[in-house]
Every structure is written in structure tokens, then in C-alpha cells.
Amino acid sequence: MDLNKPKTAVVILNWNGKKHLEIFLPSVVKNTEKAEIWVADNGSTDDSIDFLKKNYPSVNILQLDKNYGFTGGYNKSLEKIKADFFVLLNSDVEVTENWVEPIIEFMNKNEDVAAVQPKILSYINKNYFEYAGAAGGFIDKYGYPFCRGRILDTFEQDNGQYQQITDIFWATGACLFIRANDFLQNKFDDLFFAHMEEIDLCWRLKNKNRRIVYFPDVKVYHLGGGTLPNKSANKLFLNYRNNLFLLYKNLPEKETSKILFKRMLLDGLSAIIYLTKFQFKYFLVVWKAHLKFYKSKRHLKAQRLELLLQNTSSHKQIYKKSIVFDYFLRKKRIFTELNF
């Protein structure tokens, strides 16, 4: 082993995901030559661990005592894994040949880059971009996330239109390359539990003048919805609540009150729409998320005050308009139609 060569650890967080490990782990083992492979188990109650020990003895296993969510699971696991670079990989991702080295080489040459994501395509429809990440993440002024190649529920076909290395606002946690030092010094916010924690982390990193980059020459295929189904009320709750967490923590002081107020009005409008469709469960989810946000503000305020001491100026990867307004009223469904 070259002691001067950076050490990379691919870390898959697993929770009762044997079915995904059976399908997707073979591609990881086959195509990962110059990195350690770890499965960090979040207190699974299925036979994931027995399956790994029997079929993949070369894969390192780190067992946690319970389910700490995406945030806590990775925070606790990565503290115990010694590496220069971490690759956080969802258990429902199929990787391709030579998927690790090109990105690590790029990061080695660009020390101001904290995190990188590859091109994320759909495992089900491999010519199209996938929801979680696509060709790199952005947000609008009200905190709504979207991607190049995927705006809300519109998915573009990959025709090479996003084939340039590009600075982005957030990199997906489905396949996230990140320097160990950058992760361990910042970590995911455990309060998020799951969903949007990578946006929060990337925002905090960008406020420290660290770059987040999309690297198109590596592509992976993501199934999506592996842990929580897309129509799960719990997933919807986490998205509404965590988006308010995200804005309150990271917005510059002069923008916080105005943006949060407008965002809450938009959430209220979506709740009314759920009500008109007799989707009472989703209507209640919105209000539950808002109540949880208010109850958490005291804890969040301590983080916010610390973050305000950093560079919280607006970033050019934040869309200055409303993506919801542009999508539904102006019919702008493709990233290149937006006026950044």
C-alpha cells in the first residue's frame, strides 16, 4: 500500500435493508477497487448482518445499537472509521466501473472542494435523471430544493446536457464524496434525523467558503425511496419540518423573518390543497411539522447564532425567485429555462 495515497472509505448505512444489499451490493464490491467498503448498520432487526457475514466477508461491518436515523447513523459511524475521504452511499444505488478514483483524483487536485456528487440516474429508467441529486442540487429563495435535470416532478432525459464539472449548492446524500475533515468538523445535524440534512451540511460548508461540486464523468443509478416510500406521511413531515430548520439555521439575519413568513404561507397553501383533495393525513402533517419547528427553535437558535458569525452572504447557486411559482404558473419545467 502507498502510505502517501489518500485512504477512501465507502460507507453504506443500512437499516433492515437486506433486500437492497442483495441487489445493489454486488456492483459496489465488483467496481470498488481502491477503497474500503463498510456497512454501518443502524440497529437492523432483519438478518442483514448474517447475510453480509456469510456472503461478503471482505466488507467491513460496524454495528450500532439502534436506529439513529440517517444523520445520527452516519455521525456515529464515521467517527469510528479512519480515512481521508468518505463516500456516503445509499444501499439502493448501483455503481459503475471505476466510479471512485476519478472523483478522488479531482478532489486531491482541488483542495477548496469539500464535497462532490456524481451524475445520479434512475435505476428504473436509466436514461433519465433521478429525483435525489440528478445533475446537482440547488434551492430557491424559499428553501425549495431542486436539481439540474429534475425540477419538482419533472425529470429530464440525460442527453449529455449537464456534462460539465459545475459548482452546485448541495450534493445528494445518496452518493456523497466528502473529505473526512470537512465532515467530522461539521457533521450532519442530528435534529434532522433524515431528509435535507445534506443540504444543511452543504450550506454550512459553503458559508465557510468550501466548494460543492457536480462531477458528470462518473454516473450511478439510484432506486430511491429505499427507506421511506415517497408517499409516506412521515417522509412528508420530515421534509416540511426540516426545510424550516434549514432556513432558520442558515439564512442571513436580514432575510430570515421575511423568508420564513412567506415560506410558512406557502406551506399553509399546500395544506389547504391537501384538504380540498380530502388528504386529511397530509393536511395534519403540515401543521404537525410547523408545531415541531416552533418547539425546536430554542435549540436551533444556539446553532443559528454560531453560524451567523460565519460568511452567511447569499450564494449564486440560490435561485432568487420561487421555483414553485415558475414551475406551476410560468411552466418552467427545465433547469435551462430558469433565469439564474
Descriptive report:
The longest helix has 28 residues, at 280-307. Strand 7 (137-140) and strand 8 (145-147) form a beta hairpin. The chain has helices at 18-31, 48-55, 69-78, 101-109, 180-186, 197-206, 233-250, 253-276, 280-307, 323-328, and strands spanning 8-14, 36-41, 60-63, 85-89, 93-94, 113-122, 137-140, 145-147, 150-151, 154-155, 166-167, 175-179, 211-222, 318-319. It has 10 helices and 14 strands. The protein folds into 2 domains: 8-222, Alpha-Beta Complex (Spore Coat Polysaccharide Biosynthesis Protein SpsA, Chain A); 233-318. The model has no long low-confidence stretch (mean pLDDT 95). It starts with 7 loop residues before the first strand and ends in a 12-residue tail after the last helix. The protein is globular and about 50 Å long.
Uncertain runs are none
Gap from first CA to last CA = 46 Å
CATH class of the largest domain: Alpha Beta
Stated plainly, the CATH topology of the largest domain is called: Spore Coat Polysaccharide Biosynthesis Protein SpsA, Chain A
User: Could you spell the SSE succession in H and E letters?
Assistant: EHEHEHEEHEEEEEEEHHEHHHEH
Tally of distinct domains: 2
CATH architecture field of the largest domain: Alpha-Beta Complex
Number of strands: 14
Main beta-sheet strand count, sense and barrel state: 9 strands, mixed
**Outline:** globular
Radius of gyration, CA atoms, in whole angstroms: 19 Å
In short:
With 340 residues, the protein is of the alpha/beta class. 39% of the residues lie in helices and 19% in strands. α7 packs antiparallel against α8, α7 packs parallel to α9 and α8 packs antiparallel against α9.
